[in-house]
Design goal:
Strand order of the largest sheet: 3-8-4-5-6-7
Largest sheet: 6 strands, antiparallel
Shape: rod-shaped
CATH architecture of one domain: Alpha-Beta Complex
CATH topology of one domain: endopeptidase fold (from Nostoc punctiforme)
Strand content: 5-15%
CATH class of one domain: Alpha Beta
Radius of gyration: 51 Å
Length: 274
């Protein structure tokens, strides 16, 4: 065994070949520059004493780390910008859909209100016309008053009783154009539902309902008869005669389903289905 084997080595660890080569290149370049400058000067020139500082490997490492950090921050900012843009686009698309849906609902309500206003105006004109004709008819006949007296004692029976009971049970419900129950109706929707209690399937619209069955005079009404306003094949409103000179009908949004006397709004005619 060597006498120096137990003595720890004091030699510095070897530097990597690439680092040594880089430093040697830098040092060689500096020395070559100085030598050329010395050879080109006059013989009696004073020696160059200026020290030239060259970048070290440490500064290169710092610059590289700064560049990597800046690149990472730029990538992160770009990702954040893309995320914000996607959220903004989604919000714009949702707002457009909501606006389109609201407009469609507003248009639907406006059409329903317009149609109801037209029906109300038509009923008012027909009511005035009917009132004038009924006044002239009542002055030339006493049969109307006698039948009115008899109508106060009319009692619905059988299928008519089921129709009348159902119609009266809906008094107080709301009127909605196109309504078919159970808590809101339009005129033909109520008549159709009432007749369904008696097993009779009527058409959905008022003009078709008043075209069915047999035409009867207003002086010969029976409970369960369908009253109509307008012409028989072109009626704009229908209701159910419940006896006692009264009828039940879904009138309009202001009144809803009501029970009224025939004198309140005299119908144009009546039909009998049962």
């Amino acid at each position: 065994m060597s006498h120096t084997a137990h003595i720890p080595s004091h030699r510095k660890p070897r530097r990597s070949a690439s680092k040594l080569a880089l430093r040697a290149g830098v040092a060689g370049g500096v020395l070559s520059t100085i030598a050329v400058a010395g050879a080109a000067g006059p013989a009696n020139a004073e020696p160059v004493t200026e020290t030239i500082e060259m970048p070290t490997l440490g500064s290169l490492d710092i610059d590289l780390a700064s560049a990597v950090s800046a690149s990472a921050e730029a990538s992160q900012q770009e990702a954040l910008d893309l995320s914000l843009q996607a959220q903004e686009n989604a919000a714009i698309e949702k707002a457009a859909k909501d606006a389109k849906k609201a407009k469609a609902e507003a248009d639907r309500k406006a059409e329903a209100e317009k149609a109801e206003k037209a029906r109300a105006e038509a009923r008012e004109r027909a009511s005035r016309t009917q009132a004038r004709t009924s006044l002239s008819a009542s002055s030339s006949s006493d049969s109307g008053s006698s039948s009115s007296a008899d109508s106060s004692s009319q009692v619905a029976t059988g299928s008519a009783a089921a129709i009348v009971a159902f119609a009266r049970a809906q008094v107080g419900d709301a009127y909605i154009s196109g309504g078919t129950g159970p808590n809101s109706w339009d005129c033909s929707g109520l008549v159709q539902a009432a007749y369904r209690q008696a097993g009779v399937d009527l058409p959905r619209i008022s003009s078709s309902q008043s075209s069915m069955g047999t035409s009867v005079s207003l002086s010969s009404l029976q409970p369960g008869d369908i009253l109509y306003w307008g012409s028989r094949s072109g009626s704009y409103h229908v209701a159910i005669y419940v006896g006692g000179g009264k009828y039940v009908g879904a009138q309009n949004p202001s009144t809803g389903v009501v029970e009224r006397s025939l004198d309140w709004d005299m119908p144009s005619g009546a039909v009998r289905i049962l």
